[in-house]
Amino acid sequence: MPNPFPEDFLWGGAVAANQVEGAYNLDGKGLSTADVVKYCPPGERQSLEQLLSMTRPELEDAIRDSDSGNYPKRRGIDFYHRYKEDIALFAEMGFKVFRLSISWPRIFPKGDEAVPNEAGLRFYDDVFDELRKYNIEPLVTISHYEMPVHLVTEYNGWESRQLVDLFVRYAETVFSRYRDKVKYWLTFNEINCTLKAPFLGAGILMEGKTNEKQVAFQALHHQFVASALAVKRGREINPQFKIGCMLARKLLYPYSCHPGDVLKAQAENQMAQFCSDVQVRGYYPSYIRRHWEQQGVKIDMLTGDEAVLRDNLVDFLSFSYYMSSAVSTDESLTDTTEGNLSTGLKNPFLQASDWGWQIDPIGLRVVLKEMHDRYQIPLFVVENGLGAVDTVEADGTVRDDYRIEYLAQHIGQMAEAIADGVELMGYTSWGCIDLISASTSEMRKRYGYIYVDQDDEGNGTLQRIRKSSFYWYQKVIASGGADLNNN
Ligand code: BG6
Description:
By secondary structure, the chain is of the alpha/beta class. The protein contains 19 helices and 14 strands.
């Protein structure tokens, strides 16, 4: 097959502010929802839900705790001070694009003040200028799993309609400031996460809520409206902007060919695409109405909301893809697998990562083809990668052949999908430099091409080391995706 990747394909890597920056209380930054998440050692973890949720007393303790606990996202990997060194390494790999997020509380420390924090704005000016030096295009997520913690204590996050205006003001501020420095934008990271992990995705405390689904869907409605209004304002500020939505796209297979299993998998995959149905097509899909009815959900919509959703569609659809799992109607099947924000049944045909995420490169091709058929707009894989334990050898090298194999297989399937006719804009693999895990706050779960010397407790020199995958990805990019071999 001739190399199907287009010349202008955006090769690169991705991170999020709260997982890399550190400097959580410097230069006027406010406390964020990520800064209040405490490290929980593997032996003490009960479930993924427990790791991702937050109670009011826990939150209040963390806000009072100036630094005595282990809050890994407060320190990140010190990208705040080392971004020049890190960007130089990305440039050495040949990155065309770097996906990063802006920390909302760096710009609006509390979230509801009238004037932004100039020092925060200046930091991202410097980062974007540094990227420009190397001709690396920034791809900016406006909200990636964090918001000012004040918006939780005062408004209960996105449960409140008031967040719409506060977010739009924040978005307008960064659109205007970086009008000529940033072209590609994403409004919310993995917007569908609000349904699975409401604190992580929407800053919501669920204690005392009688119908959690009601709260989550209402919050999501506010996020949809805020995202659409941001698209509108963004286009007014710079018509050249390309603004996308972002979805966690986990593929679900029917465990068997029993029609009940097929129907169940179809329904779950529909739910995985429910958010893009709204943001790409501009209206709530019909199937969601029945779901709401069954769950006792009634969405409070203002006059004009539906027009806002309809008139401000995204330019492209981006998504994360790490894994797949299976579903069944047979309740005796209980062998489940871990996963990206949710669990599912083990698939006997797949291997899993050390964290139990099932590795499925063909699933990426399935998802790409399905979304292309469904939406007919450009797609962008903005997260994909293998979380693994890496070892620094005695000679100082890190040989991560397992990661190369994972990435090569997934890129290979992207190539097939493009040959199948899918319009794919780019690929930013996740955690191009080792960072703090979003779900477990671990450091030992590494995704990077660049090793960072730091452990789960924050010990280490923070030295950056090029892994074997660094040189491999450099070759992949130089060959425009034609050479995926590990040699
Ligand atoms: C995605 C998030 O869900 O998965 C990232 O957008 C996250 O922020 C990534 O880091 C990998 O998950 P984890 O839990 O291994 O960090």
